[in-house]
Amino acid sequence: MTNFQNKANFIWQVADDILFGAFMHNEFRDVVLPFLVLRRLDCIYEDAKPNVLKMHTDFKDKLPDIEPVLLKATGGLGFYNTSPYDLKKLSQDSKNIELNFNNYINGYSVNVREILENFQLDKVIAKLVKNGLLYQLIDKFTELDLHIDKVSNLEMGYIYEELLRKFNEFIGETAGHHFTPREVIRLMCKLLFAEHAYDLQGEGVIRTIYDPACGTGGMLTVAKDYIRQEINANVELRMFGQELNEQTYAVAKSDFLISGENPENIRDESSFSKDKFKAHRFKYMLSNPPFGVSWKKEQAFIEKEANDPHGRFHAGTPRTSDGAMLFLQHMMSKMETSGSRIAIIFNGSPLFTGDAGGGESNIRKWIIENDMLEAVVALPKDMFYNTGIATYIWVVTNRKLQRRKGKVQLINAVDVATSMRKSLGNKRNFISDEQTKVISEIYTAFVEDERCKIFDNEAFGYTKVTVERPLVEKDKVKTDKEGKPKPDSKLRDTEKIPLKDDIDTYFQREVLPHVPDARMDRSKDKIGYEINFTKYFYKFTPLRLLADIKADILALEEQTEGLLKEILD
Question: How much is the pLDDT for 427?
């Protein structure tokens, strides 16, 4: 942890010392991220560089397509640079810095140049040159050693995300834009694989992992490391991700390139209106999509697909101010028929927001009635860098184990956390390895206790019944042409009657004793689903006795008087 924090702090200080004035704090990200990628590429490419330059000199005039030769000369890196320059050499010639820098960038292979285009590097360089800062910035970045032997891909991910956290504080990003702590991703993996590790065992096993809102790719990387370290080092994992933000997309793609993954499996634009994996199905899916973020700009496209019985969003659409549940439907559309597993992070809204018959409720209804919601885990607060709100992991699958069929497991892990010695933004708590094990064991035990509740699917469903009372004028009930009592719209009410209850029996037991003139209008019945997590784990705390409260007040008064006396004396 210290290594990544020190490097992130160094980079931030460099940016603050050199850029501030010419650039606002909210523009630092535009400059720092591409240079961080370039320095990482330099450090990894350093050993292969002499061989590539020799091959380029020997064969550039002899072969019509020299790229395969140069890629082979890298020893399997997947990219190359034919320029004699790197950041260190550039820092040795301040007078020709712009010309040499352009030579350096143009020497990269096409795949790297495409990544750099997403950073809009030309605009950044023009502004640096205009303010005489390009040389200073390059010189300071050469002090960073980001070689793979010194900084692992995991640590590199931490550096990216710590810097992005700092940048977002100045940009004013909403709570929906945040990064997932690695221990939370590991917990998600535990829940996905705890009872299904057998599916990853053996030789020649190939499995796919997908994240439709992949950010810098951290969730995919941690999932890969988890599987290879904890389950099977020999499994072949093919990872896929899509990301809307150009800069984080470029970071994810460069990270795949550097780590030997296929960078073409990271794709840009919106997963909703520009699904780049339409024909794909995936075995495992993990995501922490933005919540509380509007989907209005894609509303026409999404609603059109929602009207298609075979569309991804046919179950329902949430309110336009929060598209989180659209990501889950999108992921579920990519389940393999042989069985897929999904772990996704939500805030509390998808559990209960929306009335019966509304979009959110209909989505919950579709998921639960199709027996695809396996578990929901309530996480501790203050787990994320940019938000302290309550969060939950949903585990969704189209192939439940026999003992889980027809049931949903709820795990209350809000107190299973350790306080951090030093906060990182809003992140004040973390889940230790031992605590991850505790939560995983609760999940696999599948036994009710104070932290675990298990319900039949229909326990979350209810019928919303309209209750009418007669319109009374001058002490007389008004009737319609058929002689039936007219309803008084001002007295109209509704009852949420659990699906397990007989509606007539419930009405006679719970309603009529209080309003004997009430009747039900069953033509307006609507089925709804909600998961009232707080209610299921509510613990009654008896009120304190007045005598105890009075005693505490008197004791506090005596203590205060004593302190005042000491001060005055």
Answer: 87
A 10 A CB-CB count for 299 gives 14
Residue 569: per-residue pLDDT = 65
How far apart, in whole angstroms, are the C-alpha atoms of residue 286 and residue 6? 29
CA distances from 452 to 51, 63, 342, 434, 455 (A): 59, 66, 20, 18, 10
Q: Tens of pLDDT along 511-549?
A: 999 999 999 999 999 999 999 998 999 876 677 778 878
Whole-number CA gyration radius for the chain: 30
Q: Please identify every stretch of the chain with a pLDDT value under 70, giving residue numbers as ranges.
A: 1-2, 170-178, 540-541, 568-569
Count CA within 13 A, CB hemisphere, residue 351.
21
3-class secondary structure, 389: coil
Task: Give the chain's end-to-end CA distance (angstroms, integer).
Answer: 51
Kindly tell me the sign of the dihedral angle through the C-alpha atoms of 312, 314, 318, 319.
Answer: positive
Cα separation of 260 and 488, whole Å? 70
pLDDT digit string, tens, across residues 377-390: 999 999 987 778 89
**Interior angle at CA 247, CA 245 and CA 250, nearest 5:** 105
Q: Give Cα 519 to chain centroid, integer Å.
A: 46
> Please, what are the domains in the chain?
2-151 (no CATH), 173-459 (3.40.50.150), 460-534 (no CATH)
pLDDT tens, 230-242?
A: 999 999 999 999 9
Mean pLDDT (the chain) is 93
Helix (H/G/I), strand (E/B), else coil: 310:
coil
Q: Are 277 and 242 in contact (CB under 8 A)?
A: yes
3-state secondary structure 30-84: HHHHHHHHHHHHHHHHCCCHHHHHHHHHHHCCCCCCCHHHHHHHCCCCCCCECCC
Residue 174: the pLDDT is 46
Please choose, from the candidates 473, 478, 461, 470, the residue with its C-alpha nearest in 3D space to the C-alpha of residue 521. Answer: 470
Signed CA dihedral, 10, 16, 17, 19: sign only? positive
Return d(Cα 253, Cα 241) in angstroms, integer: 9
The DSSP H or E segment spanning 466 is strand 461-468
Closest CA to 413 of 445, 376, 459: 376
Amino acid at 152: S
Q: 362 to each of 25, 266, 325, 332, how far by Cα in Å?
A: 43, 32, 11, 15
What is the secondary structure of 94-161 as a DSSP string? STTHHHHHHHHHHTB-HHHHHHHHTTTHHHHHHHHHHTT-HHHHHHHHTT----TTTS-HHHHHHHHH
Give the C-alpha separation, 99 to 453, whole Å. 66
